[in-house]
Amino acid sequence: MDVAVLGMGRMGRALAGRLLEGGHRVTVWNRSKGRAGELVAAGATEAGSVADAAEGVDVAITMLANDEADRAVAVG
Q1: Whole-model pTM?
Q2: Is the dihedral of CA 15, 21, 27, 28 positive or negative?
């Protein structure tokens, strides 16, 4: 399955790592760069934008700080 994980805080990184371990193709994105290095080294693809991360995936999962951050990413 192709999965995008948006948000590379502690929970987002852990989730993306588990998905990689499970054999899924994972694209990651974070509002600030540099949070996905270990995941990229493990096989994830880092997207430059939310649109790039979500393009063509089966599911996109957000792991953002709060509702305001979720809205900003979804519509902003």
Answers
A1: 0.93
A2: positive
